[in-house]
Amino acid sequence: MSRYFERLSDGKELVWGYDEPLKEYFIQLYKSPSDLVDEYEEGLIFSIANWNTVQPHPEYPEKFKYTNREILEVLMDFKVAPTEHTIAIAIGLPF
Predict the structure, then answer these.
(1) For the chain, what is the domain count?
(2) Crossing angle, helix 83-91 and helix 68-78, to 10 degrees?
(3) Is the pLDDT of residue 35 over 90?
(4) Which of 35, 37, 47, 62 is most buried, judged by most C-beta within 10 A?
């Protein structure tokens, strides 16, 4: 599994990667630590993937399966992933 993260300017943490055993890409967004109510709150805003979405994207609450193109579009909205990652997703290769 590959897993990369970036702290965004608003303090939220974006995580993305490729899960080799499941053969799918994933994106997760977590609240800023300062936005957490207590120490037990995980802060997961969404966790989407090709097949195993855990927490739907707030803009698409009924969507649980994403194409590579849709994963790529969500990731590119954040403008933080390296070009080699976006190319890999576009052509369906692990990174």
Answers:
(1) 1
(2) 160
(3) no
(4) 47
